[in-house]
Structures are given as structure tokens and as C-alpha cells.
Design a protein that fits this description.
Blueprint (H helix, E strand, L loop, with lengths): L6 H71 L4 H14 L4 E8 L4 E3 L2 H5 L8 H9 L5 E2 L3 E3 L3 E3 L1 E5 L7 E7 L1 H15 L3 E5 L4 E4 L8 E3 L2 E4 L2 E2 H6 L4 E5 L5 E8 L5 E7 L2 H51 L14 H59 L6 H15 L7 E2 H19 L4 E6 L7 E2 L4 H12 L8 E9 L2 E8 L6 H7 L6 H6 L4 H12 L4 E7 L3 E9 L8
Parallel strand pairs: 17-19
Antiparallel strand pairs: 1-2, 1-7, 3-6, 4-5, 6-7, 8-9, 8-15, 10-11, 11-12, 13-14, 14-15, 16-18, 19-20, 20-22, 21-22
Length: 579
């Protein structure tokens, strides 16, 4: 036998699970919300850094443009004085050496006048200057910014070049940017903000950045890749942010921003180490929160269970005594709540029960006999009325030869019906009585109602009430077959199922609407039924329940115009009462 769990213990587990679930749910929701906010703020903060870098480049671009315009003005003023021009180039270079690698003039033969010391000495023509000069010559009204390249004198650099308009001979002004200075600035941001920034060209070349803090990057030949995704593919991706994975499966977040002045992109690659550190601290906090929630759940559950347990056990003890037959027991719980009300109400109820039992013992047997007599008095006159009506119809139709059959069946019905109602009969006798009744109805209505018996072996002698089946069969003819208007079969089944015996009367007539079935077995008959003295199925239902208990009686199952099944349910064991 499975061990039963007490109500206080169930209540303890329910409250514990509820409180702990609420704490876990709130903790998880708040953790996810904070996690989302941290990610959002991290992205917002990173975008702010990218904006600052863009502003820094915009300021530098303006400075470089100023240098170009200064050189242009100086050269135009001293076009025939090379020494003055070289001196001014040198002064401009020294003044801006923190930002530029060289300031120089490119002649049409690709020789130069340079401001830095190496280019003042080695100023001969170089073939790698031709793309710069051609670009300036082609775009004479704008400043051309080259892709990063390896310069012989400036190293890894980007050149800003502008054509010298108004000069008597073709010439271009060039400034080599000091990418090391830009990279140092990015490194400082990377170190301070725990970020990984770089400047990238439209072709995916790294201008500056990433060198000291490669992280998840695979850098080769001044370009990079993350996992299987190249720099060019990252730049071609729509949107300003994306998520990728390294070859090791580590997730990384990427933010992109197009610079305002240069045709470059600022790239931020975050391997989420900073975010993970913040979330790790947050997780520690939530672990302690869950531990506190667990302890709080245990305390609340124990307190509530104890508050319920004491009065509940007192009431349980009281009910045990009542169960053992002590109806005079009292155990008032002095509490001003529902348990106190329940205890006082149970005391009053026990007093009333004692009085009711006393009265019931006096009147129970008399009431039972009276009910049986009343039920039987409803049955016998009704059978006689219908049977005499059948004889009248036979005579009116001139079927004199059938009068003896009807009278013989009538005699059998009267002998059967007027016997002692409390006497039980066998199912075989009930079936014979139904057969006599069907014989009369066949003659009365000039129809053929076929009686089919399907009785399980051993149930022919099963004891049932006298006049049990005939009213049900009459109901099938009167209602199911429209009072003889149509004919059909009536099948009687009898079978065992578990600890009960079921006897069914089945017809294929008109059926009973679903909204009427629940009212048929009501204990009070309708006024029409009383006036017609018709035996309702509720009479049979009441007799069965009176003798065998509330769980037995009649069941009605009907599908209109298909089948109606009236099922009488009896216990398979000993009868109660006068069995």
C-alpha cells in the first residue's frame, strides 16, 4: 500500500516549491534583463569610443589639409626659390613630426623636395611615387588619400596628395601620415578600455591597430580574418554589428563605423572577455541570492505548515473518535479563524447527527415499507389499464380469434403484477412477463415488436425486482416506436462487468433528445405523468437506489433516430434489504 503524504507536508512542499520557484523565476528574469542591459550598454559604450576615434581622425584630416594648403601657399609665393621652399618644408615637417612621416613635393619626373632628413638627401626619382602623382593630376580639385603601402623612407604609411594648381610646371604636394602615431593612440584606447580597435581600408587592409592585441584574429599581410570570415567579407556585411565565431568556436562581437573624412572603417572586435567578467560578478551575486531564497523558502514553508498542522491534527483526532463511534466527543479549537469556526460547527453538527440518528432509527423501517408500497401502487393499476386497452382494440378491429391470446396474457400479467412487491423474482420470470406484454402490444397495435434476449450464461436466475423490465419496454414502444406508429426490435442484454450486473433494454426508435435525458430520472414526476398514471423510469431508478445504494440505478444513453439504451445496474453480490 502506498504511503499517504499528510496535508501539512504537502502544504510544506507546495509552499516551498512556489516560493523557491518565484525567487528563481524573478532571479532569472532579472539576470537576463541585467545581462541584456550590460550588453546594450557595452555596445553603446563601444559606439561612443568609435565616435571618438572618428572625431580624432577628422581633426587629423583637417590638420593634414591645413599642412597641404600651407605648403601650397608657400610654394606659390616662392616658386623660383628652392631653398626657401625646402626650408619651409623642413619647418612644417618638424612642427608636425608627431603626426606625419614626411612632407614633400613630387615633380613630374618623380623626384622630390622633402622635409625630412632622408628625403632631403635622397631626393631622386622613385617609381612608387607615380600612382600618387597620377592620382593628384587626375583629381586636381580634391585631395587624394592612398591605400596603405610600404614607403622606402616613411615605412608603412598612407599618403595624402594634392595637385599644385597654378604652378608653372606639374607638381604635387604630398604628406605621409605617421601610422605609428595613430596606432599608438589606438593601443592606448585598447589597453584602457579593454578593446581591440583598428582602421581598415575598403579592401580589408589594416591601416593601424590589432598589432599588440590580436585576440581571436588571424593577421597576415596587413589583413585579417575571424574564423573562416575574411576582412573583406566583414566589411561587405550589411549593418554595423555582427556576431562571428573563431576557429576554436569562441564567439566574438564586431562593430563597424565608416569614418567621416577618410574612406576607412573603424573596426572594434570584442571577444566578450570584458562582458564575461562583468557577468561573472553578476552570477556570483545571483548565486548568493538563490541561496538566500532557498533559506527563505524553507522558513516560510515551515512556518505556514506548522500554522496549519496543529489545528488540523486536532480536528483529525476528533474525527478519528467520531469514526470509532464516539459521537459525543468535543474538542473545541480556541482560534478566531476558519479552524475555530470549523471546530465549533463540527460540534454542533455532531449534536444534530445524534438527534437525526435517533429519529431515523425510529422511522427508517416504516419509511422503507411505505416507499415500496407507493411505488408498487403506481405500477399495478397502470398495467391493468394498458392491457384492457389492448383487449378493447382487438375487439374493435374484429380480431376475435386473438381475444383468447390477449386474455391469457392479461391473466399472466395480473397474476405476476399483483404479487408481493417485496418479493424478488428471477430474470427468467421478468423476461417471460415482458414476452406476455409484447404479445399483447403486437395485437393491440397490429405491429410486430420483435423481442431479442441476449443473456449471459448463469444470469437467468439472477434476482431482480418484480415488474422491472416491463415499464422500460413499455417506454420503448410508447416513446421510441411512437406508440406503435412504427415497429422494430427490442433487445434485452444481461451481462456481468466487474462487480456489477447490467441489464439493458435497447431499441432503434426515435430516441431521446440530450436535453431531456438528465430530467427523466428526477425523483419528482411531472404533473402530466401523474395525471396519466404512467410509470416513469424514475420509479425504477428510485427502487434500485433505495435497495442497493446511490451508486446503482438506471443509466440512459440515446442517439436520436439511431439507438436508445436504458441500463439497469445492480451489485453482483448479496442484495440489501429483503434479498
Amino acid at each position: 500500500m502506498r504511503r499517504r503524504i499528510s496535508l501539512p507536508l504537502k502544504l510544506f512542499f507546495i509552499v516551498f516549491a512556489f516560493v523557491l520557484s518565484c525567487i528563481i523565476l524573478i532571479s532569472q528574469l532579472s539576470y537576463r534583463y541585467v545581462q541584456k542591459e550590460i550588453r546594450t550598454n557595452d555596445m553603446y559604450y563601444t559606439n561612443q569610443i568609435l565616435d571618438k576615434v572618428d572625431q580624432y581622425l577628422t581633426v587629423n584630416f583637417s590638420s593634414f589639409q591645413t599642412i597641404l594648403f600651407s605648403v601650397e601657399t608657400s610654394v606659390k609665393a616662392n616658386i623660383n626659390n628652392t631653398e626657401v621652399i625646402m626650408k619651409q618644408l623642413r619647418e612644417l615637417y618638424e612642427l608636425n613630426s608627431n603626426y606625419v612621416s614626411n612632407i614633400y613635393l613630387i615633380k613630374s619626373d618623380l623626384s622630390i623636395l622633402g622635409g625630412s632628413t632622408p628625403t632631403r638627401i635622397f631626393d631622386g626619382p622613385l617609381a612608387d611615387r607615380k600612382p600618387l602623382f597620377d592620382a593628384a593630376d587626375k583629381n586636381r580639385r580634391t585631395t587624394f588619400v592612398s591605400d596603405p603601402y610600404k614607403s622606402k623612407y616613411s615605412g608603412w604609411t598612407v599618403t595624402m596628395v594634392r595637385y599644385l594648381n597654378g604652378s608653372p610646371f606639374p607638381m604635387a604636394i604630398a604628406v605621409d601620415l605617421d601610422l605609428n602615431a595613430i596606432e599608438e593612440t589606438l593601443f592606448k584606447i585598447n589597453k584602457k578600455e579593454q578593446m581591440n580597435l583598428a582602421l581598415i581600408t575598403t579592401t580589408g587592409k589594416i591601416i593601424a591597430g590589432f598589432s599588440e592585441n590580436r585576440g581571436p584574429l588571424n593577421i597576415q599581410d596587413h589583413t585579417f580574418a575571424i574564423g573562416e570570415t575574411s576582412a573583406r567579407e566583414i566589411l561587405d556585411t550589411t549593418g554595423t554589428s555582427l556576431q562571428l565565431h573563431t576557429k576554436d568556436g569562441m564567439p566574438v562581437s564586431i562593430l563597424k563605423k565608416q569614418t567621416e573624412k577618410f574612406n576607412w572603417s573603424i573596426i572594434s572586435i570584442n571577444d566578450e572577455s570584458r562582458l564575461e567578467a562583468a557577468l561573472s560578478r553578476l552570477e556570483t551575486y545571483y548565486i548568493w541570492l538563490l541561496v538566500a531564497g532557498l533559506l527563505l523558502s524553507l522558513f516560510i514553508s515551515f512556518f505556514i505548515a506548522k500554522y496549519i498542522r496543529n489545528p488540523l491534527y486536532a480536528l483529525k483526532t476528533k474525527m478519528k473518535r467520531v469514526e470509532q463511534g464516539d459521537l459525543t466527543t468535543t474538542m473545541t479549537i480556541n482560534r478566531n479563524d476558519e479552524f475555530g469556526d470549523l471546530s465549533r460547527a463540527s460540534d454542533r453538527m455532531l449534536q444534530q447527527i445524534v438527534e437525526l440518528i435517533r429519529r431515523a432509527e425510529l422511522h427508517n423501517e416504516l419509511e422503507r415499507k411505505l416507499e415500496i408500497q407507493v411505488l408498487q401502487s403506481q405500477i399495478n393499476p397502470h398495467f391493468l389499464y394498458n392491457t384492457l386497452g389492448s383487449i378493447s382494440n382487438v375487439i374493435r378491429l374484429g380480431q376475435i380469434e386473438k381475444v383468447d391470446v390477449v386474455i391469457g396474457s392479461l391473466i399472466s400479467l395480473l397474476e405476476y403484477g399483483i404479487a408481493d412487491a417485496s418479493e424478488k423474482v428471477s430474470l427468467r420470470q421478468e423476461l417471460q412477463n415482458v414476452s406476455d406484454y409484447i404479445e399483447i402490444q403486437n395485437i393491440r397495435y397490429n405491429r410486430h415488436f420483435d423481442l431479442i434476449e441476449n443473456v449471459e450464461e448463469g444470469l437467468m436466475d439472477f434476482p431482480v425486482f418484480r415488474m422491472l423490465l416491463q415499464p422500460i419496454v413499455e417506454n420503448s414502444i410508447f416513446h421510441g416506436y411512437n406508440g406503435g406508429g412504427i415497429e422494430g426490435s427490442i433487445t434485452i442484454h444481461a451481462y456481468r462487468e466487474g462487480g456489477i450486473v447490467m441489464i439493458e433494454v435497447v431499441d432503434q426508435g426515435e430516441g431521446i433528445p440530450a436535453d431531456r435525458i438528465k430530467h427523466i430520472l428526477d425523483s419528482e414526476p411531472s404533473d402530466v405523468a401523474v395525471k396519466r398514471k404512467r410509470i416513469g423510469l424514475n420509479n425504477i431508478h428510485g427502487r434500485i437506489r433505495l435497495h442497493y445504494g446511490e451508486q446503482f440505478g438506471l443509466q440512459i444513453i440515446s442517439i436520436p433516430h439511431e439507438i436508445t439504451r436504458v441500463r439497469a445496474i445492480f451489485p453482483a453480490g448479496m442484495f440489501k434489504g429483503d434479498a
